[in-house]
Amino acid sequence: MVANVSAALNAYASAASRALQPGLPAAEEPGTSFGAILEQAAKSTVDTLHTGEQMSAKAALGKADLTDVVSAVTNAEMTLQTVTAVRDKVVSAYQEILRMPI
Fold first, then answer.
1. 3-class DSSP state of 63
2. What is the pTM of this model?
3. Looking at residue 21, what is its pLDDT?
4. Neighbour count for residue 69 (Cβ, 10 Å)
5. HSE-CB of 26 using CA atoms within 13 angstroms
6. Residues 52, 75: contact at Cβ < 8 Å?
7. Confidence grade of residue 23 (pLDDT, cut at 50, 70, 90)
8. R_g of the chain computed on alpha carbons
9. In angstroms, rounded to a whole number, what is the distance separating the alpha carbons of residues 34 and 94?
10. Residue 51 to residues 16, 41, 44, 70, 88: CA-CA distances in angstroms?
11. In the chain, where the domains are located
12. Cβ neighbours, 10 Å, residue 39
């Protein structure tokens, strides 16, 4: 999944560089890029989901504290809900752009 995100970000960056008109310098802002922030968020999401799975597996074997398991699973659930909400907003924005007249 992270590889797909990286490929998409590279495609957007390539398209943006082609869209620049001659004579206009590329805007370089200090700090991290949007792609880097998005990639870090994706990695963090995957890590959170893996932690929830690992804690659930430990609970099934009786090797984890119940409060730790509930906390990890709740964090994973909230992360998944957040990712789903962001995805829905991105799809909605994309559909709205497609409806714009040219």
1. coil
2. 0.60
3. 44
4. 18
5. 8
6. yes
7. very low
8. 19
9. 17
10. 36, 15, 11, 11, 25
11. 2-18+28-98
12. 16
